[in-house]
């Protein structure tokens, strides 16, 4: 749930919106809705098959799609306030010496943890957690797919007849007028996602070439020349999608006091990340506390 700032523009370049289909998640987000940190996004929606519109609807008539306000990252910013978090810290080893000791990539140690719960994507959790973690083979087998995010900022708004679009049979999968979401009205921004298939094939390619291709594809789909944007950048996500949208039981190894959760345990997506953590937290409370 990331937000990229490039004044005067800002972009939700990861998750675009989220649903709340379970009672537990609805109860969890309600206080944030009341505070104005989360709100509904009601775009005009189209589905494209290549550059042909095959479906139109208004999300105001459908189940709520939620966003953070004024950016997706506002949700985590708010939730993080009472928690002791070390930012920009990449943990590379875990060692058990009576308790768990973590070491980061600069050699800094973090000591005396009873439990370690990894919420990194499945390939990174598999790299981090020791081979004797009870579920190591299970999490190693969970694949995640890549995605490119193309961010375009304009001085003037684009005259599109939709604000959100899914695209099939294309190297693109999603186009959104990011600035249409609540709290973002003053900067004209377009957010484009590649298809997973395209990103998997090109994740290590030259980023200028990828950007050029995705801009051309956006022109083809929308019928507008977006190459005139006065801000353009691209971000490659190596682990964006849970490829098979699998659901798994909780990965909790009581013997070694290790656990793992994340959207990849529960069908992908923001609500899946919550649900996975919710199940794990309840299991920890039941078995451990
Ligand atoms: C391009 C894109 C579009 C998406 N669109 C949507 C959408 O529209 N709707 C939706 O519901 N979901 C969407 N998602 C999915 C959604 O973003 C995820 O489901 C959700 O953010 C997962 O949360 P998480 O906490 O499980 O994992 P993440 O948000 O991936 O967080 C994992 C964290 O672990 C950190 N980490 C990894 N390794 C280490 C390490 N060794 N040491 C320390 N930290 C580490 C990472 O830096 C990261 O901050 C999208 C994702 C992407 C990438």
Question: How would you describe the overall organization of this protein?
Answer:
This protein is α+β, with helices and mostly antiparallel strands and 289 residues long. It has a single domain, classed as FAD/NAD(P)-binding domain (3-Layer(bba) Sandwich). Helices cover 26% and strands 32% of the residues. The strands form five sheets. It has a seven-stranded mixed β-sheet with strand order 5-4-12-13-14-11-15, covered by helices on one side. The radius of gyration is 20 Å and the shape is globular. The site of flavin-adenine dinucleotide has 25 residues, from helix 3, strand 11, strand 15 and helix 7.
Provide key terms for this protein.
three-stranded antiparallel β-sheet; binds flavin-adenine dinucleotide; alpha+beta; 7 helices; single chain; FAD/NAD(P)-binding domain; 26% helix; 32% strand
Distance between the amino and carboxyl termini: 30 Å
Total count of strands: 17
**C-alpha-based Rg, rounded:** 20 Å
Q: What is the strand arrangement across the widest sheet?
A: 5-4-12-13-14-11-15
**Main sheet: strands, sense, barrel:** 7 strands, mixed
**Mean of all residue-level pLDDT scores:** 95
What is the CATH superfamily label? FAD/NAD(P)-binding domain
H/E topology pattern = EEHEEEEHEEEEHHEEEEHHEEEH
CATH class call: Alpha Beta
Number of helices: 7
Assembly state of the chains shown: single chain
The distinct ligands, each listed once, are: flavin-adenine dinucleotide
Count of distinct structural domains: 1
CATH topology: the name is FAD/NAD(P)-binding domain
What amount of the residues lies in strands?
25-35%
State the share of residues found in helices, binned by percent: 25-40%
């Amino acid at each position: 749930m990331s937000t990229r700032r490039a004044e005067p523009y800002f972009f939700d370049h990861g998750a675009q919106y989220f649903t709340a289909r379970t009672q537990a998640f609805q109860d969890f987000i309600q206080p944030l809705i009341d505070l104005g940190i989360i709100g509904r996004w009601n775009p005009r929606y189209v589905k494209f098959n290549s550059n042909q519109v095959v479906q139109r609807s208004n999300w105001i008539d459908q189940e709520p799609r939620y966003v953070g306000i004024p950016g997706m990252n506002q949700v985590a910013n708010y939730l993080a306030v009472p928690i002791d978090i070390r930012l920009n810290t990449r943990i590379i080893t875990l060692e058990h010496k009576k308790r768990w000791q973590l070491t980061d990539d600069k050699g800094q140690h973090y000591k005396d943890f009873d439990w370690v719960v990894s919420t990194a994507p499945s390939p990174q959790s598999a790299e981090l957690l020791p081979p004797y973690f009870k579920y190591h083979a299970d999490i190693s087998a969970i694949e995640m797919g890549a995605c490119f995010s193309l961010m375009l900022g304009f001085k003037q708004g684009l005259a599109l007849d939709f604000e959100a679009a899914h695209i099939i049979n294309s190297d693109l999968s999603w186009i959104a007028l990011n600035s249409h979401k609540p709290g973002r009205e003053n900067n004209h921004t377009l957010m484009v996602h590649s298809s997973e298939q395209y990103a998997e094939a090109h994740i290590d390619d030259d980023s200028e070439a990828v950007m050029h291709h995705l801009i051309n594809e956006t022109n083809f789909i929308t019928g507008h020349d977006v190459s005139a944007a006065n801000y353009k950048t691209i971000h490659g996500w190596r682990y964006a999608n849970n490829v098979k949208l699998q659901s798994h039981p909780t990965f909790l190894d009581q013997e070694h006091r290790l656990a793992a959760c994340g959207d990849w345990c529960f069908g992908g997506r923001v609500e899946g990340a919550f649900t996975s953590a919710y199940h794990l937290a309840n299991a920890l409370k039941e078995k451990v506390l």
